[in-house]
Here is the input.
Amino acid sequence: MAFSFNTAPKVISDKFTKLAKEGRLADILEAVYDERSNNNAHSLTGTSKNGAIKVVRIGSFSTNGK
Amino acid sequence: MNIALPTLVLLVFLVPGFLFRRMFYSGEFSEQYFKENLVSLIFPTLLTSIIVHLLCYIILSPLVLNPDTTSIGILISGTNNSSEISKVTQNVLTNYKSVLLYSVIASLTGAFGGLLVKIIIRNYKLDRKYKILRFQNEWHYLFSGELLDFPNVPGRTNNIDFVIVEALVSSDEGTILYSGFLDDYILSSSTGIDRIYLKDVRWHYIKDDLLQVNASNENKKEHQRFIIGDFFIIPFNRIINLNISYYSVEQESQSVNTNEI
Here is the structure.
């Protein structure tokens, strides 16, 4: 375990930031919407159209805003 | 009975406890510190103050400093005996350097203690394992996906690379669904969260979804619209519902290379 003085919860990983800087955000979005468009509830993966990016949905929660 | 003097002494006595709690609820968790009422603030502060003073007393007594507990007791008791009070006051004034040094050491111990306890709890993920150590602002756990590490919740936070938020927002023209990458969020002391920052946002009216469902396949068309800009900020009071999804991402070319190696 890496000890850190920064205790703030992270919402974006370094890997994602690196990919975003490389201009792969559009590919990631494509992969996400591919995962979303799969009507099969058990399919938690999506791939970008060029096949370069694969995303896996780890979890999902819904809440009301109040 | 003299009330002002014991109150003053009590306040000075509570300073390490206040600092402990202020540092424990610092940074991202500071909102919890300000949210508390007076009763829930005083009791834990008193408890932590006692612990800090005990610790300082045990450590500092054998050293140069030797806190005069009798004098402290007389000051807190609120006695009317003027000779005792003047004796204690004289004692404090004579040893003002030691009193000041003790106060500074106790305050610093409280402050660093609070920070250290918080760092240990967060680094060892004790707040995720044990409910009693959990910070009250649940939005941190929700938005970061740390709640996946809670007992009996499947998944692991370590795998999360990004978070997609879908926010149902009311408007005069109808309900709108915004969807994008979660970039940041700002807390509020009253509602828990004030606003959320999204990136690469798509949006559409919910009523368009119904039209799409009723339309035949040939007539279906893309009704989602993009918002151009770096950040899209949604005030939390306009949000009706939130759907939060956690994703891991893999670059296929990299994984192929790894397999080849």
